[in-house]
Amino acid sequence: MRVKPSVLAVLVAVASSAAPVSAQVDLTGTWQRVAQNDNGFSREPVDLMGMPLSADGRAKALSYDIAALSATERQCQMYPPYYALVGPFPLQIVMVPDPITQKLLAWKILGWGDRDETIIWMDGRPHPSKYAPHSHGGFTTGAWEGDTLTAVTTHAKLGDIKRHRGFSSDRATLTYRFSRHGDLLTVVGILEDPVYLAEPFVLTEVFRLSTNMNNFPLTACEPIEELPHLHENPEIAPHYLPGKNPSINEVTQKYNIPLEAVLGGPETMYPEYRKKIKDKYVMPPPCKQGCGGGPPLQTQTPPSPPAGGRGAPPRK
Amino acid sequence: MKPVRRGDAAAMRGFVLVIASVLVGMVLLDRPVDAQRGNPQPQPPRAPRAAAPIDLTGYWVSIVTQDWRWRMVTPAKGDYQGLQLTPAARKVADAWDLARDEAAGEQCKSYGAPALMSVPGRIHITWQDDATLKVDTDAGMQTRLLRFAPAESRGDVKKPSDGPRTWQGVSQAQWLTPRPNVPLQLRPADRTADTPPLRPTGGSLRVVTTNLRAGYLRKNGVPYSENTVMTEHWDLYKRPNGEEWLTITTQIDDPQYLPNARLVAPIFKKEPDGSRWEPTPCSARW
User: Fold this and answer.
1) Which domain range does residue B23 map to?
2) Are B27 and B78 in the same domain?
3) Is the Cβ pair A257, B69 closer than 8 Å?
4) Co-location of B73 and B112 in the same domain
5) Which residues of B167-179 are buried (b: 16+ CB within 10 A; e: fewer)?
């Protein structure tokens, strides 16, 4: 049988143009946090340096008293999706196939401790109406751009974006980028919030593929009595009134950083801000205690959850 | 044997055509991306500049949302928070003497390649020639040269130079482009039937830097040795709103001073021009 070359060419062209010339990579696995940065680390309760907070965002941060988390109604308040970048836990990512086609329906970042799971829908579904209910995990859709997965989260609840030092509102949008390089996974988070941020708050985190499994999984949260006086008097709502945060000067006292820098704002994240504080900063005396630089931690996984209460399995 | 009827022959031709097209399609799926873009003939290798899957050129400003206290100001002597160091590294860092560095004319020790991209400032990326990306910094006025293997070498990596060690060392660059062939399970389950097929786009720049002169990872004397190997992945993100972000995933391996690889990923945002470019010399003090 002879086939005309022109017919074959057409068939080849059709076959090649319709071919799923995709470029995705597998993100499945447990990814341990390995970057050396202070995304989720600060010893001082008021440390907003480099955070592009709006005036409202700063006021919200300074009014926050961490004891609020011990109030019964807030003990099970979870962290928002941005916590994936600032929390201490690994990312455990699993693939959710479409049951019929076996194609990729969604990625799921499993919940961990007090961060809800994130489902990244890959099937092109739209985000819900702005009037739809918000959840701790939010609503997320994703798409491949070459080897990189881009995901956008909306409909999350108000939450903590830097370990009790700053907050995002329920109107925030988070754009993630997941780029895999061998056994490393770089996650970029671009958080935009018309309420508490004046500019996007961008962080990166690097993870390494690990064989260590999830030993602190998301479980049902059960409130316990943490601070008796809150239970004895439910009218108490821990907070600080404007100008009354007792920790506002700690960074300045310890490290000589001018207070204006400690309170953050978009200008503090740009290089030219250095000129503004150059004449106000004096290097502190040598560090003598709690200076870091020690050997690596034996394990990067957190301790087991408590026997009862928050983070523990529900009672039978 | 039964004679082949006219209808059977047509069916057979159709069957063969389908099989042939499937086979050709399978072969195409295993070919490099270029070949799938309608370029089936072998092509001479393109120069790295022409083959660039992403455009890194332009002015970029560093966004300091991480490690602010150790980057925007010179931290106290002995402040090593957030670092994992060997005892040898601590010994060197504990002996840091700012005045001695200044007297020795070594103000640039904290501007070597392993620290440079974390120094607050602006970078300007241009092509020096068809196989060399040039990265200038205004802070410290340093220049990194990211050299690709020449096109005619077909990707063979050249051995690092035996020349003198320098703050910026020798950097070998390589474009990484998306793979054309992936398992079914990684293809999105599109809900709409007319979704166009995905096309491979973008890519990443991998850079390996060696032949470094020993310097500081932090301004307060935390050292890296001359045997340090730095591996970077430069990733670009163009947002629909026009913003462009660059992240440089950086792995620093130094068996002498770091018990584990140091990993950071500094962030840059693209600027429209160089109007905020402000060259300033190295400073050991600020």
Assistant:
1) 8-36
2) no
3) yes
4) yes
5) bbbbbbbeebbbb
Q: What is the DSSP string of chain B?
A: -PPPPHHHHHHHHHHHHHHHHHHHHHHHHTS-HHHHTT--S--PPPPHHHH-SS---EEEEE---SSHHHHTS-PPTT-EEEEE--HHHHHHHHT--HHHHHHTT-GGGGGSHHHHTTSSSEEEEEEEETTEEEEEESBS--EEEEEEPPGGGTTPPPPPP-S--BSS-EEEEEEE---S---GGGSB--SSTTPPPP-----EEEEEEESBPPEESSTT--EE-TT-EEEEEEEEEE-TTS-EEEEEEEEEE-TTT-SS-EEE--EEEEESSSTT---B---S--
Nearest CA in chain B to A204: B265
- Computed from CA positions of residues B90, B62, B210, B219, in that sequence, does the dihedral angle turn out positive or negative? negative
The verdict on B254 and B232 lying in the same domain is yes
Closest chain B C-alpha to A113 CA, distance in angstroms: 23
Tokens 């401790």 locate to A113
Q: Please report, for chain A, the start and end positions of each structural domain, with discontinuous segments joined by +.
A: 29-210
- Work out the number of other CB atoms within 10 angstroms of the CB of residue B17: 15
Which chain B residue lies closest to A175 (C-alpha atoms)?
A: B239
Cβ neighbours of A124 in B, within 8 Å:
188, 190-192, 195
Q: Are residues B27 and B58 in the same domain?
A: no
The closest CB to that of B190, out of A26, A123, A293, belongs to A123
Q: What angle do CA A109, A110, A114 make, to 5 degrees?
A: 115
Taking the C-alpha atoms of residue B43 and residue B39, their distance in angstroms, rounded to an integer, is: 8
Q: Which residue of A has its CA nearest to B201?
A: A146
Please tell me which residue of chain A has the smallest CA distance to B86.
Answer: A295
The dihedrals phi and psi of B165, each to the nearest 5 degrees, come to -75, 145
- Establish, for the pair of chains A and B, how many residue pairs have beta carbons separated by less than 8 Å: 294
Chain A CB contacts of B85 below 8 Å: 293-294
Residue contact B65–A202, C-beta within 8 A: yes
Subunit contact B20:A49, Cβ cutoff 8 A: no
* Of the candidates B284, B266, B270, the residue with the CA atom closest to the CA atom of residue B119: B266
Complex prediction ipTM: 0.86
Per residue of chain B (286 residues), what is the pLDDT tens digit? 444 455 555 555 655 555 555 444 444 444 444 434 445 567 788 899 999 999 999 999 999 999 999 999 999 999 999 999 999 999 999 999 999 999 999 999 999 999 999 999 999 999 999 999 999 999 999 999 999 987 666 555 555 556 899 999 999 999 998 877 667 778 888 766 655 556 567 899 999 999 999 999 999 999 999 999 999 999 999 999 999 999 999 999 999 999 999 999 999 999 999 999 999 999 999 8
User: For residue A152, what is the nearest residue in chain B, using CA coordinates?
Assistant: B239
Which A residues 16-55 touch B at CB under 8 Å?
16-26, 34-39, 41, 49-52
Mutation target vs A (from B36, B66, B220, B239; most A CBs, 10 A cutoff): B66
Does residue B194 form part of some domain?
no
Amino acid at position B231, single letter: T
